[in-house]
Fold these 3 entries.
Entry 1:
Amino acid sequence: MTSHSVLEFSIEKQGVDSQGVGRARAGRLTLRGAGEKTHSILTPVFMPVGTVGSVKGMSPADLHQMKAQIILGNTYHLYLRPGHQRVERLGELQRFMAWDGPILTDSGGFQVFSLSSLNKIDEQGVTFQSHLDGSTHRFTPELSMEIQRALGSNIVMAFDQCPPYPATREEVGAAMRRTRKWAERGLAFPLKDHQARFGIVQGGLYEDLRVQSAHEITQLPFDGFAIGGLSIGESPELMQKMAFFTAPLLPQHRPRYLMGVGRPEDLVEGVRAGIDLFDCVMPTRNARNGQLFTSQGKINIKNAKYADSKEPLDPQCPCETCTQYTRAYLRHLFVSRELLSARLNTVHNLTYYIGLMEEMRRVILEGGFEFFEVWAESFYRKRGG
Amino acid sequence: MTSHSVLEFSIEKQGVDSQGVGRARAGRLTLRGAGEKTHSILTPVFMPVGTVGSVKGMSPADLHQMKAQIILGNTYHLYLRPGHQRVERLGELQRFMAWDGPILTDSGGFQVFSLSSLNKIDEQGVTFQSHLDGSTHRFTPELSMEIQRALGSNIVMAFDQCPPYPATREEVGAAMRRTRKWAERGLAFPLKDHQARFGIVQGGLYEDLRVQSAHEITQLPFDGFAIGGLSIGESPELMQKMAFFTAPLLPQHRPRYLMGVGRPEDLVEGVRAGIDLFDCVMPTRNARNGQLFTSQGKINIKNAKYADSKEPLDPQCPCETCTQYTRAYLRHLFVSRELLSARLNTVHNLTYYIGLMEEMRRVILEGGFEFFEVWAESFYRKRGG
């Protein structure tokens, strides 16, 4: 496998912190697409989550409108329904869902542990019961690659073991060692020409285990590296601290992905730490629950105080939801459980997340790390945080 | 009230059947909008139903894309939530929902009888309990006008009594007489300058009562006339027969509206009878249930036979759903209960309904009634019906 043929990553500007460590950076990730296509992604970037073949409520045109550059698909869900072989027969995930941008698929490992019931793990893989119908299935590192190969995603994640939180040092250590072995087995499984691979660093909240896991995983010929095992129940402060600790342990010139993170402030802290890619269900899931992110902080649109508000949701925001509707209408749709509610809320939350990443990229390009620090201060001040 | 100032209706072409009766017709309905606006509607036309301030799942841009010319709002629902006075404070229904086209509101009468529990009717009005919270409310012809006035709709429907089906001749007769009295009381209630009024003919399935109701209602200074009391449980054949009987009883040069109808074949029969306006929840509700209308007949997208289908839903259809997605993907979204399912299905069903009306209009303009009869035959043949 020659990693550079399928993925290229160039750093346009990188800040250096007071300890001389490379931190917040703006880059460009180039992925070889299927056929003649090439996908160019400007980082830092947020990836909307399209769990089961759609970003809930969003059409591909909506995703383009909000300038989504890459989306995420879930291996566990797509394996169960509609089935990875079916997706492959129908032209792989991109064509299946009519999305012409790049897609990253996770390995299914996290869902196998968190969603399915009665999972049983051994050295070879994980046996679990489907959350849909209770049927028994078994994932191995090889099957995870086979599924992601069939889905045809542009970035394939290694099959790792994410221990629960809290976990003992022994449990985290064992999961970390298994993650390394599974990473090697996955690498031996051939993928399609246009598929890049990312390895995952585990190690929980133990700094020495993070150092060891990063050392082991970054020895392997991956095209990029992810920090796994965070945002699984620990406090945001611990998560941010561990991401800040782990990011510099990853190779400077490879893309870095902080999995499953997070709140807007977590994205700011992740970028500050030197992370390039993020994904989280928060903007989409919270949208459906009426929790909206704005430049002034969070809004619960159900709140009665919005019933007569002619104000836009976020006057700073260029999205359809903010330019065309009032808070009163958005509240009405939510309270009335109208289908349009989830859609408009999702358009806004994703636009906010993507816009926040664009803004951070601009700040880094314009002024480097010190300028970023000044910007971050004003970000927190505006939110009253 | 001078009806011509607020609504103008011109017939561009009208077919005449073998008995010399004016039938299928193509026209243009011009409504004075709020402010300086004028709305021009080409008929026959189908009005998508936006029950509670949105056509479920659709944005105004979607409605424009499918060439919706006018939509319907429900007085009963909007009165209960968010409240008509609130809608008025927020700029009337058009601005509230960010739809810049015209809106017809029903009178609330039908929902009061069909949706609310424990309704009690007397000469003055109807007392009922909200389907939302059981609270007690009372509608009168005057309150119905007051609500529709506040909503600011372009076409205001008279508050009528729609007897259930089946009903005795006495019950239907009593409802018909009350409908006439209520029509007069409604007419005495002042509306806004841009609001046209439609009267409603009742009379159930009794031809002589239809004659009498049509005679009485069309004496009143309404801008247009509707056929009510159909599509409430009787067979489609009876419904079509009664619409065909009643349509010519309405003034030739006023718009005719067949309320709550119907299936595609009912629209064809309605147009054949000489109807200009239609509304029905069927395309939107059935979309959410996976029932899709196509040029080849109905499709239940849940059917397993579509699981691997790379075909578009309807190859004849220009909508986003048919040009961008496969049946396999639409089935997957439906089976997985993805939000996008209802949206894509609704876009298609409404596009189909609106396209069917456009096609009938074209056929009438090109060839008149005989040509329409030929076209209708081919319409049924393609559907295998």
Entry 2:
Amino acid sequence: KINQQRIWDSLMTLGQIGGTEEGGCCRLALTELDRQARDTFINWCKDAGCEISIDQIGNIFARRPGTNPDAAAITTGSHLDTQPTGGKFDGIYGCLAGLEVIRTLNDHNIQTFRPVEVSVWTNEEGSRFAPAMIASGVFCGEFDIDYGLSRADSEGVTIGEALKQIGYDGAEPVGQRDIHRFFELHIEQGPVLEQEKLDIGIVTGVLGMRWYDLVIKGTSAHAGPTPMAYRQDALYASACMIKELFELAHSNEEGNTRSTFGCLDVIQPSRNVIPGEVRLTVDLRHSDLDGLQSLEQKAREIIAAIAEQSGTTAELNCIWDSPPTAFAPECIEAVGNAVKDTGLSYCELVSGAGHDAVYLSRKVPTSMIFVPSVGGISHNEAEWSTIEQIGAGTQVLFNVMQTQANI
Amino acid sequence: KINQQRIWDSLMTLGQIGGTEEGGCCRLALTELDRQARDTFINWCKDAGCEISIDQIGNIFARRPGTNPDAAAITTGSHLDTQPTGGKFDGIYGCLAGLEVIRTLNDHNIQTFRPVEVSVWTNEEGSRFAPAMIASGVFCGEFDIDYGLSRADSEGVTIGEALKQIGYDGAEPVGQRDIHRFFELHIEQGPVLEQEKLDIGIVTGVLGMRWYDLVIKGTSAHAGPTPMAYRQDALYASACMIKELFELAHSNEEGNTRSTFGCLDVIQPSRNVIPGEVRLTVDLRHSDLDGLQSLEQKAREIIAAIAEQSGTTAELNCIWDSPPTAFAPECIEAVGNAVKDTGLSYCELVSGAGHDAVYLSRKVPTSMIFVPSVGGISHNEAEWSTIEQIGAGTQVLFNVMQTQANI
Ligand SMILES: NC(=O)NCCC(=O)O
Ligand SMILES: NC(=O)NCCC(=O)O
């Protein structure tokens, strides 16, 4: 029913905004490129007859009215921002699939009881502004609006300022829209569906994740005359921590244990200076709360022991805590029924990545649909899914949305 | 004979140009601050009656004529640039001690047979522009002038451009001055003299050192859905290399084995992205050539093995090779005689840091004098030597220079 070529073409067109030589996309949240992508998306939604609203944290809602003006909406959506080394699919797919649902309803002149809405959530990636999923978090009451607007990027520009700069500081109070159920379609960003040769993932939940800032302080000193035994090398200490925490997670992948150091800055680096201070970011994940808690506990012990041995000090500061999420059984079941109608192959799985659906699920019944990622690769310019995979996921989303919009 | 308070005051005054809150100095080569320090130094030398010359790579020579206008000069000097986390003594001391020698000769109306010169060498630290000691290297024929002028900082600004910006692109061809012998006075930058409770180090040579750029390439991927076993994490691989090379040097400090990673950049970092590329700098040192060669060989083996195990690639590229230096016996002896005259305590030692004297020694008989560094600390804002230590070293330099200027 949906038009596979049409959503594919829309994806490829939007991917040109911030498109990289390697075929990926670098379009950080609330940059000029993000503005262009948002404008394009809104124009397409208007062409499809939608009413557009923008809230005070820049979330976009495109609404196709239902026959009952008072009914809460069936909403889908994701994000348009990307990682620095991002692809064309992560997030964008979920927004454009929502638009494809509306275009398909229009093609067939289908009326729905409930309004159908597509949402674009600001700064999902957490790359320019930490934490991730911040604007869906504000929408759902996890963060208050002042916290959201005041988060700053590495240059000190806040979300509030950046919204004004690109003209997306909307008027609508955040979190006031009436959503009946929320469904998010996304690429898997991992290897499971491809390995199992399955078309669709019915997502039952999301790993718990915690983000930390880690500051290691040693003593800067001269690379030549300072004997190795005298050194308090903050980079050596950091290296020992990275290695040990990687191997801890590697040796116990039960519960999807994950440990990632994404950013590392040597403060005032120089080739012939033993680093005196290093700042890192840490990302720990686990499928259950006890597991996540004990992973953090072990990380703290490892970090303290290495700091002690290396004559450095270490400060680990949690800046974001997103507990493991279980999606609503009725929404999981609805996706399951929609898949069965199509004859596509499927399995249930847990998402290793955070999504706006995590925060939405705290406010309204929510679940997610995954399609395979080629090679399991994401947050990489080589991120890819085939046109058939993109089409299949969109069809499942259409089926769920249409059914749910009439209940 | 020399005026201890006068050189101390000059040091403290010059240290205010780029002075930091922590009491250190951040005055990178050929910046506006470096210009101010150079201007101040030149004004003081002019006040002391010196003739000033500036060569095409910005080296400064302040000359006090001798009674024989044709005699080659006795030259001393060091550098005015600092590390980002530098102190007030490293380099600056050697320049101002040279000026103090001239001021003292003036005080006592002493004529010398040979001219006495003080030199300031451009970009000794190697922090803004790699490699270190570049302008003394050009002076002595180690590098050609085009290589020197074309070295670029991390923003792409070349030495040639930076010299023009601060007005220190002099007219004199580089390397044409007639130097009879060169003596450099410096702080030790290491712990030996302090530990041995000695006043003066008679420096017999300098460790061999090699600088490398190391590029590790893995695959950027999502921190959540990517199982640990699938990762090709360039930062994890880097961490293993840093740890193993640190411990290799630590377990064998014979020959003053040193291994330092001063800079590390994650390319396009993001908290939830497994690093796909990391660029590091490596500094290896050893007191003899075979030892340095075998250290590099082991480093190559370790790096290759870790790259293989971690599914990454590693490219180690040597950008600077300064072999171990042995100073001229006649100059070492001259310093030894000068120390004995003073009654100060002393020992012979080898420098772990490179100095302009390394390159000067390839062209003219050269040696160095060290004074203690409090706590052995340098390339750190806490770098310190006492007024008495500063005075003692200057007196030894004066004695050597005066004697040598009359031979
Ligand atoms: N989908 C996605 O990449 N989300 C970013 C949040 C996370 O780090 O999992
Ligand atoms: N003296 C000094 O800090 N020189 C810099 C060159 C080196 O790295 O040893």
Entry 3:
Amino acid sequence: MEASILIATLRDSLESNTAHLVYEQLNDIHPVDYAHAISEFPINNLWVFLSALPHPEQAKVFSYLPVDIQVALSTQISRNKLAPIIRQVSPDERADLFNRLSEEQREALLPALAIAEREDLLLLSSHEEGTAGAIMTSDYVMLSAEHNVTQALDVLRREAPDKETIYSAYVVDKERLLVGVVSLKDLILAPVTMRIKELMTHEPISGSVEDSQEDIATLIAKYDLLALPIVDNEKRMVGIVTYDDALDVVAAEATEDIHKTATIGKLDISVKDASIFLLFRKRVFWLVILVFGNIFSGAGIAFYENTIADHIALLFFLPLLIGSSGNAGAQSGTLMVRALATGDIKLRDWGALLAKECLVAGLLGLTMAAAVVGLGWWRGGYDIAVIVAMTMMLVVLAGSLIGLSLPFLLSRFKLDPATASGPLITSIADVAGVVLYFSIATWYLNL
Amino acid sequence: MEASILIATLRDSLESNTAHLVYEQLNDIHPVDYAHAISEFPINNLWVFLSALPHPEQAKVFSYLPVDIQVALSTQISRNKLAPIIRQVSPDERADLFNRLSEEQREALLPALAIAEREDLLLLSSHEEGTAGAIMTSDYVMLSAEHNVTQALDVLRREAPDKETIYSAYVVDKERLLVGVVSLKDLILAPVTMRIKELMTHEPISGSVEDSQEDIATLIAKYDLLALPIVDNEKRMVGIVTYDDALDVVAAEATEDIHKTATIGKLDISVKDASIFLLFRKRVFWLVILVFGNIFSGAGIAFYENTIADHIALLFFLPLLIGSSGNAGAQSGTLMVRALATGDIKLRDWGALLAKECLVAGLLGLTMAAAVVGLGWWRGGYDIAVIVAMTMMLVVLAGSLIGLSLPFLLSRFKLDPATASGPLITSIADVAGVVLYFSIATWYLNL
């Protein structure tokens, strides 16, 4: 069903006082779609839709609501009403929500949970944002190496309703150290009397609670895993991260990296929902920094004031030359930033890439020089044409090499290479462009 | 094991003529890691490592080799030797490889396959690149609605070794129309005599062969699916796309989008492996286009030559003002391009976002004006300070609104909003910056 039709149906049901019946009428609607649709309504209406759901669906739909709406519900709906839902939400979602609440709101929520759930919640929510610990769930199936296949399948059947996945089960020893992993596929193909220790994959690939979410997602993608077991510093199993979390992480990291290409700080919520002041804060820092970078270009121009005053026609070509330098630099910089982020290239590849970039940028410079030489001749005659063509060749080369090298330089000093955004590279390439242009012009015109 | 140690071990084994034994010695190494390591060797050595593997591992390791190495193997190793591997590779990987081979190479490969495999291969490889059809696999399990749970589990057990996943099985009718989906979890929890038609989810979410890979990945992420069934135009089931393919698609699309922010064309292979001419081709188009964009800025400057010649101090502030306009524009443009790509915002949100952007950009402009007014005073006195501050305020606003609107405008005319890259917005904002700066200066200085 189209989202707009669904919303209209919900609106009608509110008007005819049948909101509590609408979910049943919407035969087989997916909880994601229902969650998206009801999140368009004010909190009190949303609560009518949510509370009318059958119990298992309530937690599912709640999980798919945007976090800011979850927070609004947690603060505006009485604890007694909300507690049954919160108890059924998966532990990692619950920890996420908990981290967004104020101290007082947390205090109000905790008594609604059983002691074991409370401890689990406090543990899960103690991990730093951006780490594996912050996205893992404690809802996984543990098996003993001594179980046989029949016993293991019984465990899976019994625990399935409460677990995030039963397709991978983890084998731990008495100290809770992770010793193996077994898939449901292996279990249903194996002879029923086989012992888990004979069936399992030993020393499975695992992540650490402190690993970054990006590294965890990379492992999941590289090894095509359904879930990655997470261990603490003593190698004890503490949770799993599932493939669907990895998908969310990859998309969120891509958004962050794309924003960084334009010097925008990390934005946790949708641009549509972000407040004016939040957007201001995420944007103002680098804009002001770059103003000071551009002062160097201004100073470069001021230095050549006499040449410019004598040959004011030179100014016509200024935007075109420094623009091309910056654009070529943004291209090579962006290529490097992304390749470093995906692990496609390493620090040690700089030399080889530099040699290649010299040839690519040389070709680009020649093409660009050819593209503007006629324009130079038409606007300023032979001398200007020569100056513009020579400068174009050199600024494209200089911009490209600056763009290529800056991400490596930042990486080398343990800074985030993504800081080498298009605007930063453009600012630096602009200075190089101004200086190259007017030095070549001054030199050539005084020959 | 560290990649470098693994490669050293492989090298030693070549020298001591024990390459055919090395995989066994490397207890429990993951096929991905083995594939990465052997791909560092020349093809003839690589073949020694690959051919020495036990049969089921050969196909796994082969699948994880980079596609250019798969192609090199297909062309340099005799068909009789390679055929047993190719036959075991999963259909989607085989179709991928097939699409990279020349007509002759394809002709050589086909006889190695059974007739059914051949038809499947030709069908899979017939789909256009970038569509669901091109990444789907035909290795999925089909069930009949009339089966009971025991029968269904028998089917899964029998077919498991050859299927990409058995965690989702698809229920089709006699016309092969997709009527339901059932998960292995549901199957092992259900009473053994229950019929599939009572257990299955009816009308499951599905994609069409012609959908873009991006849309498919979005569906998989949105509904947290393990696999998405793909249907043809007559709604007949033709394949599945699994979550691991979705992860690869999301990462590849992010790379493409990040490259677009800097006007780089779609690059299918790593920047490390790309040839000089390929990189040149992917970069030159927009660089040349933007040169012509920058001519307008040059013309703007030429138009105000008299004002500039009379007040050459104005030039000092030119890079700083047009730079800020472009940077603010790149920020708001990038925010919109990404939000449109992820579906966070729609075309109809333009009005609301425009109102918000006016306020954000207004605040940014005020801050930036405050940041430069002192510099204006110091370099040029009271008049210049006023002109620079007023211009800064206006160019940040103008740049931001251009950056915000351009992606919507492109979307509106069914063009890719990502074409509104930083450099394109910067070029347009530059023109606005030049014109605003010198008109304000001319007007104010002639008051």
